[in-house]
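Supplementary Data S3. Sequence and structure tokens for construct A.
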Amino acid sequence: MIEHLLQPGYFGKLKVKNRIVYPGMTFKLGDNKGHLTQAEVDSMAYRAKQEYGPGMITFPGLNESMFGNVKAVNINSDEAMYVMAKHLEQVKINDTKAMAILGVLSIKNTDYSANCNLGASNLTYPYTTVAMTKGEIDLFIYKFGQMARRAKEAGFDAIRIQTGVAKKAIDLFLSPYTNRRTDEYGGDIMGRTRLLREVLTEVRKQAGADMPIMLELRVKELVNNGIPLEEGLELVKILAPYVDVFEPTVGRNIKQSALSAVEPYYASYGTLLPYVKAVKDAVPDKAVIATVKMGLPSLADRVIAEGQADFVSLGRPLFVDPEWITKAAKGEDRKILKCIGCMNCFTEQTRKEVSPTCHRACTVNPNNLREEEFYHPEPAKEPKRILVVGGGLAGMEAAIRLAKRGHDVTLCEKKDVLGGQWIPASRGPEKGDYRTLVPYKENELKEAGVKVLRNQEVDKAYLQSFGPDITVLATGAVPKSLSFEKPLGDVNIVQGNDVLMDQAKVGQRVVVIGARYIGMEVAIKLAKEGKEVSLVDMTEIGKGTNPVLFDYYIRELIENKIALYPNCAVTDFSSFGVDITYQVSLVTLPADTIVLAIGTKPENSLVSVLEELKMPYCAIGDCKRIGDALYAIRDGAELGHTL
């Protein structure tokens, strides 16, 4: 139960129906006119209309530009404000309040390069910035004020000022790492906070005395010469007269830190609570929001009960499961679909198959941006007898959705467990949330009435005896091999997944070939077991992987003293080890075990059988084309919705 989370709270003088804030979850859409799309508005409204919805919903960044127009969502004109007012009418239901994130984009595309940020000082590292002039500072402050005015007139209930995001001008002024100014906007803490204090003063002037202002503030920088916690708490006290609510974060200035905005699987629950409590102790008369990895109902409720925070921010928990609050309120925690911390919601630019193209998608919730349609599908007009072959993520998802729509569904899995390649992908010790997904899907299969047959091989004879109206192939993939792979006496050649599952014999000197997710995980695992590990890839180490996760992996690789060989082609295996080309030299890496992590290829051998039998079929997931969990679940959901 979450009795404390459900109690009313206050943003300044504003009464909020409960203690849950849904932060600004951007889908990276927009209509190139600065407006939210209707799908984005509907997505927020869907969460507001639940039996128990969040007390406050935050609209994603409503940006203004220093120079020229901005295509991102904005309220940089009164016309944009009127459009936003219409959106607010749809979201402010069931006594839900709405908060606007305000931000001035400081890209200057006239005198300077479009890739050059206006900031506190002239810097070339970690990114290029040009020091703002006094005139530009005055314009910056003015634009914040005008956005605050429009936010109030549009009907927003609160304003959020975001300072803990790297490369934003306010952040660059606050940090001694990036603020090297010698005028009144630099130097000591009062100088470095001057820009923000003037922004907050102007926002208050334009928005009015009663408009709550929430400040997201980085109270510790994880970088040398950055802001230590002691100074962060001093910042809080200096800024307290200007704001009503604080949201403390922690991070690096060099780039956006995982701890300041996102919730990767390797971060512990409540990871920022020590900082939240420190801020609450520093300014007990101000409301404080706990954020990042707060998605356990018992944890979130306890934080409020103990007075560590006044509100809890639940971004990805509600992004993944819009009914999170309702389920938690009814004591149905086991029914909550959890965010697994995979960070695929930061890979939209590589997801050309996801429709609409390049929007921010979720691995475990393919319903986002189409909630009404996908959460409440129409029953099948002509129920069919459907055979789903393969019990991985794609097969389970398709079976669940098909059965819920009234089809008679049987799922066959040749192994004794469901989950397919997700099982080894979930093996790592930090991946506890990954391991919640298959049990959740198994429960859904049961509730949907799917007949599940484990240890059931599907071949020609089985297909003929079963006689399905349609077969859904979700047979996944098999590991790739190398053309020169051969027996090598005492040298053992094994697959990366088998190593992760502790199903392979591994010697002391190991060469891992392939440096994407599986290869990096295997290398780290074996190094921690005391093995001597080399990691080889024909391209860059971790190329194409999620930047948030790669940041974690590369640190682990270095800390565990793994020898890295990027841009090295593997030419042969021998009884001595692995031959690679290192620049122009041929080098042998000694090994008694070679681990292959070079990817997979579709397993679709049943296609020819089905075509021979003239049986209709659909292929989804890896057996159609190699993808990842996001594609697999999305394939299953979309087929299940339309078949």
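Construct B, processed identically:
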Amino acid sequence: MDRYITINNNKYTFKEGDTILAVAERNNIHIPVLCYLKDIAETGACRICLVEVEGVPQPVASCSAFAADGMVVYTDTEEVKKHRRKALEFILLKHPLKCGICENAEDCILRDLARQMGISEVSDVQEEEHHPLQDWNMLLYDRDSCVLCMRCVNICRDVAGCDAIDVVARGNNAHIEPATEPLNCDFCGMCVDSCPVGAIKDKPFMDSLKVWELEYINTVCSFCPVGCHINYGVHHNKIHRTRISCGSHICSKGRYGFKFVESDKRIKTPLIKKGDIFTKADYHDAMDKVYHGLTDNGVENSLIIAGGWLSNEELCSWKSLADKTGMMFITEAEVYFGRFAHLFKEKFGHYESVGTLQEVENSDVIFVIGADFARENVGVKWSVIKAIRNNNAKVITIGLQRYDYDERTFLSLIADYADFAGEFEKIKSSDKNIYAALRKQISSNKKISIIAGNEYFCGEKQPSSILSFADYIGKDKLRAFILTYDKLNYAGSLYTGGNTLDEVIKAEPKAVFALACNPSTGKTEELMHIIEKAKFYGTPDMFLTGTVNKADVVLPVKSVLETEGTFIGIDGRLLKINQVVESPANCKSNLETAHILGEYFRKKIDTDIKSVFQKIAEKIGYKAEDCESAEPVYRVKEKIFNKTDFTYKDIEHTERIIYVNPRHHEGVLTKIINTCGADDFPIFPEIEKHISPGFIRSHNIEDNIAKGVKLIPR
């Protein structure tokens, strides 16, 4: 039976648990808000969203007052306006409208509200003690501007899942402080985006420009395959800040990692090594050397390595060039995932994750297997936190360490000696209470998800064990199976195909041309050894870092922010990257480089992104017109669930080093290029020398790191 609430003389249906504000928003009825943020805990602190309810003597906060059957509400009476105005004037006693000297003036909810209510200034403003800006690592906090709306605290707790800040003290002394000194969190900047007055600021943007001087360019973040929408604030071809877009949030890499494009260490002209020294060269001379390097020892002995940053168009074009010329071709994703990716495809029919992140959010039980979200895909953690908040989802982690969000989990297991497979076997059959409790969760719930990450792929010696665990959960219950990975286009890389690592090692290539790939210790270490053994090594790159220093030829390349293309997201969504800034003059995109090298081989490689996508769309699981779609487009997936044959074998308990992703950093883009620009401003906090667990469950720190493993940031 429908229930009705009357708002401004019109009847509307509502669901149990709806607030008055939620009903009003759903029906396009404007109620001004300040402290309110959709889908998180309401505080009712600002009193700006007051409405009049028949039978109630005083106006009520619509954000926290629940709708009731037969309730009659008025949102715009003179009495309501008077109370809202008084509430706003009270706030403005602490935050005077000094908009002329505020860099946030045109991006301020408080100023917008003052304009709506006709308030230009407030009398009787008392001068209070001035507080200097507080340095919160990548953030700055202006206590004098803060209106204590609690939005930052609420979003940090309920969306980011960090609990990194809170209100301390009372009365006039109340203010926001970090939970730890200095602030050490995900640095996702949700607190910055949620602040209605700019009291929390991005430190890199301070003293840069006024917000109204920026042109915002909307695209998809290029730092991982989650596919968060992002706005880049650009002025005179330089990125100054980032903001959220289309309801997405962005992690520390997306928010602050763009500084690499303007680094004075960037390669802007071709380099040819003479002896041990790189010398600047003409582009034609450099490409001529690349061509001869790939052909002098027989083109069949040459290898193209395609990194996980390449677009679908670049991947397919380079694979086409390899096929047409007879060169070998391998992707970084093929090496990282190894045989597991193919086992996954045999089981489910595709390489990208099963289900979507939305299905993770709707799950009742989520198994997180070796995935440290802070080091891989922070956006996946937000979906997990949302499932906890909205569904009271039971999250079970099995990892090599305790994670930052561990106190929110139903149960946390440590996989000693990286024996994840052993933990799966215990869940299936052990008599211990904790494993029996997990079996009960599996049997009593219908929507279960699995998330597998870096620690699992790098540590587990029996990788098909997790696929067998999916069988144990069952086809009817498994809603999502997410594979976290730190490179943008791992799924597109795997669909491109090519040689296996065993085939390449056996062939012993004499020449290597590596694109968007700078392998180091860890899962891609074999690629580094292949490069070191080759007689010739060429690469388009932005910096002389890591393996690039060993190259014979280095070509200046456009960054992903300086070109466009399509990518396959973590759950099969088509991601379209738009160009944000122009590149330096001599830089070419990887697609343009394929075209130029193709001319040397007399093979045609198309450089038009749209044209290339239309040619390859069906091959990678889309329609030709999907590139122009304004709505999210997902790959057409096979929906199969083949049984995995697996028998657990006891492993030898020997100590091992397992390389994991460095927190906040991403390869040469943010880890090695740690400073840039005239002010030598650090992009992120110092790179860790070792791993410290995020949450201490006991007084003994050894209880929070798996036995027999040493975790080292690569």
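The mean pLDDT is 90. The two ends are 59 Å apart (CA to CA).
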